[in-house]
Amino acid sequence: MRDIDGRTIITGLIGSPVEHTYSPLIQNTFAENLGVNAVYIPLGVKESLPDALKGAFAFGFAGMNVTVPYKQAVIPLLSGIDPVSERIGAVNTLVKDEEGYRGYNTDSTGFIRAMDKAGIDVRGRDCIILGAGGASRAVYDALHCSGADHVYVLNRSLDRARENFGQCSDVTLLSVRDYRSLPSGQYICIQCTPVGLYPDNDRTVIEDEAFYDLIEAGFDLVYRPARTEFMKRLERQGKKACNGLDMLLFQAAESFELFTGTKVTEEAMEAAEKALSKVL
After folding, report:
1. Does the predicted TM-score (pTM) go above 0.90?
2. Does domain 108-243 have CATH number 1.10.3720.10?
3. What is the rounded CA–CA span in Å between residue 259 and residue 83?
4. Phi-psi category of 60—alpha, beta or left, where left has phi over 0 and alpha has psi -120 to 50?
5. Any idea which residues carry the catalytic annotation?
6. For residue 252, what pLDDT is reported?
7. pLDDT, tens digit (0-9, with 9 covering 90-100), for 88-111
């Protein structure tokens, strides 16, 4: 067990709920593998988010990750945010500065790195995003920055989709039930909803096999189970399918680097992935 002393870098995750998060396992594995004197803990915020930030600042927390429902609500309480967070309209990482905490978003770059690892190039390609929640904004930012030509966002509620994507000129919004109106072609599809998440393993947003004929390769941001029903439908057609584990690890690594100033090595990434494999 690592020693914890007065020089230990303290970080954590704020959100509600946080009881089932894997972030402490990942971040503490990074610290142990890299020999960094740091500890990461879950911080459930049940009442006052402003008070939680003031308390963390008073105790000298070096930084925190942010999860639902605070990724947007925390922004007015920060000393500033980075350009990626401005584009997405949400933060997932806070780093202490002289005035409080500055916000960053590592989800977009984490997804870009996951696409690179999978060998999927979206430059000049048409893409589909299933879902219009917070994760979809980060995925859209990644696709846009990576040179995707056009993005079709399919969501149950068009009002919600308009809230998040109404100002994006390279996006077409469709109701999920209108998927048959997609132009014929081969798409890169990213599944950004919780549908298919354990224990609800057997569900997909769209059940029609004809929809999967349109997809060349797909990502499911769900990583438990490791092979979702969305992925299985693609694999049955010989298509490439990836889950969200690499995105989870890459965004966590970038957060760790912001917290500690220490680069996460390939060996540390492998150690964290091995630790996750024991609990997923």
Report:
1. yes
2. no
3. 18
4. left
5. 71
6. 98
7. 999 999 999 999 999 999 999 999
